[in-house]
Amino acid sequence: MDDTAALLALADRMLWVTALVAAPVLLASLAVGLVVGIIQAATSINEQTLTFVPKLAITALVLVLLGGAMLGLIGDFLKDVLTQIAETGR
Known about the structure:
By secondary structure, the chain is mostly helical. It is built from 2 helices and no strands.
């Protein structure tokens, strides 16, 4: 029963880390898409590349600015998982 609880706790933390890593990129892309959509609706310009290029640019910017923090979260999680594996292997 203890192994099941540990596995569920690990899965819960994995989902939380995934949400923390993905949220900045998704929220920035959503915000840019909303702004571009409003501009397109106001000006009646329906060009597909007009939505793609700003989303690509903001995604790259967010990854440059927050990529280190995202990798730090993933690295800490990996270190904890490997520590747990080493402790249960004894």
